[in-house]
Amino acid sequence: MSFFQKHLNLSSKPYLGASADQLKAGDFNNDGHTDFVVAQIHSESLGSTPAQLQVFMGDGKGGFSDQTDTMFASGLPWINYVARMIVADFNGDNVDDIFAIDNGIDKPPFTGGQNKLFLSSGGKLLDATHNLPQGMKNNHGASAGDIDNDGDLDILVNALMNDGNDLQINDGNGVFRSAGYLLPDLTMVNPWSGVGRVVKTNTWSGLIDVNNDGWLDMILGGWDNGNAGKTELYLNDGKGSFAHSTAIPLPPTGIPGESIMDIKSIDLNGDALPDLALSITSGGSADVFYHTPYMQLLVNKGDGVFVDETALRYAQSTAPQPLTMWYKSLEIIDLNRDGYPDILMDDQNMGSTILLNDGKGRFAKVLELPEGRDPNMYVYSVVAAGDFNGDTMPDLVLSIYGGYGGFDVYLNQLSGPSGLGKLNGKYDDSAMYRFYNKVTGTHFYSGSKQEVESVLLSMPDFSFDGPAFKKSTVADDLVDVFRFYNTQTGTHLYTANRAEADNIRATLPVYDDEGVAYRAHAEQSEGTAALYRFFNTESGTHFYTANAAEMESVKIQLAGTMSFEGIAYYVDI
């Protein structure tokens, strides 16, 4: 099975009549091991009979145990129709929390549901739903990000019917308040009567800094309904507001009644501008409704302009299929650790698909799950990725027959780019290699073959991430990148700012000056990418990445710890 191998099957006792609708990975008790949460839905009643969230705690060796009965400090986590979740740190304690998007009852008269929030507290999960704006709404989607750059994650909720979008601002402790004044006018003339105005509604959203100005922008996904908003981009004004932002339409696919199911940031061409991957399906009558599994790939050209390059990068049919099939979620993750983002597409009815990146932003299907599935039959399986055995490689967990067949855990069989042997002994003189220090949680960069080989052979605490970017050799705008070693923390600092380097030498004796590490560009040009710098406010160390998707992930997942310092300089790719 490609580079994944089945490790075990977890037996499961789902709530009677309920089935697994989504899985998400996270560390919910802060023990350093990856766990996963299951959102279950009572399928027959479509939510009128409540179900439960289910939590499996990891042992760090690829094993799990169902600890739902003991992990929730406030009692069992009852939900109605939670088809989607967000796992992130919402209360600033660096431990994963769960935001459950509850649609309520998914059938007429569509009375709506109350979203749920479970915050980490003392190794448990505490029901903090009272911290959210209260109200029964037809919640369909949501996205999280630090809209106002105050160091915590805010939430944008997307509800259907007459409920609309709700931007909820975090006070830093996981308490949220609605802030509609930060949104643009999201209303339209009543499409049914032509009299008065009604709210526009959207199925999904994305909070992504598309113009690299350090402020998250807002993308709203359209759908097939009279009061549906279009798929549009709104730029942040640099103060955390979209109130006066003008809508920028994104390219349509031509799929009839196209409806957006997910929006993710991905770097397709290495130009430092976040590109987009959108899951899209068809609307319309029952025979074609949600019958199109399609992923659109949009390349960012700057200034809010996106170009559809799906046909070039992953060609697909836009025609409705005989069975109900659509990608509920997309996960952007480097599954083989070659430095290029791959894609995990999750389709509950027909199973999941893994696409590998060829290094140029083009994708090929390499794996379908569950194994041996019949393409003409529903499989009722969802999947999540995470490092389940502590080897830094992404593994997979998937539900079998809605969880009634348990959960299969597949471990990644690649050792990762763990040495020159993994590169077939071919050291690339033009590359800057990246290592991850498992003790300090920081990265180390080197372009010296002798140094790289020394770290590989004699420093087991360093895992090898492979080539990060190219050394810059010939250009008019090249600047020196200085490397300093912090003798107290055992970490490195890199800077192309001569004033900063001089200040370190003059005032910070804990830093050893190790000279010029490599050269980079002061300005962006063709063939270069931005290298982003973060400051870890807890450890006093820095984090660097030239991967725009990784930068966006750090901004969202580690907003309470990692302070974004912007673009340090530009590197060749």
Provide a descriptive summary of the structure in words.
This protein is mainly beta. The protein has two domains: about 5-410, Integrin alpha, N-terminal (Methylamine Dehydrogenase, Chain H, 7 Propeller), CATH 2.130.10; about 420-570, no CATH class. The protein is about 5% helix and about 40% strand. The chain is built from five helices and 40 strands. Strands 2, 3, 4, 5 and 6 form a five-stranded antiparallel beta sheet that branches. A four-stranded antiparallel beta sheet has the order 1-31-30-29, with no helix packed on it. A hairpin with an 8-residue loop joins β29 (about 385) and β30. The two termini are about 30 Å apart. The model is unreliable at about 415-425 (pLDDT under 50).
Write the layout of secondary structure elements.
Layout: E1 4-10, E2 18-26, E3 35-42, E4 51-58, E5 64-66, H1 68-71, E6 78-79, E7 82-88, E8 97-102, E9 116-121, E10 124-127, E11 139-145, E12 154-159, E13 164-170, E14 176-178, E15 187-189, E16 197-199, E17 204-208, E18 217-221, E19 232-234, E20 248-249, E21 259-266, E22 275-281, E23 294-302, E24 305-308, H2 310-313, E25 329-333, E26 342-347, E27 351-357, E28 363-369, E29 383-386, E30 395-399, E31 407-412, E32 431-437, E33 442-446, H3 449-458, E34 462-470, E35 478-486, E36 491-495, H4 498-507, E37 511-521, E38 528-536, E39 541-545, H5 548-557, E40 562-572
Antiparallel strand pairs: 1-31, 2-3, 3-4, 4-5, 4-6, 7-8, 8-9, 9-10, 11-12, 12-13, 13-14, 15-16, 17-18, 18-19, 19-20, 21-22, 22-23, 23-24, 25-26, 26-27, 27-28, 29-30, 30-31, 32-33, 32-34, 35-36, 35-37, 38-39, 38-40
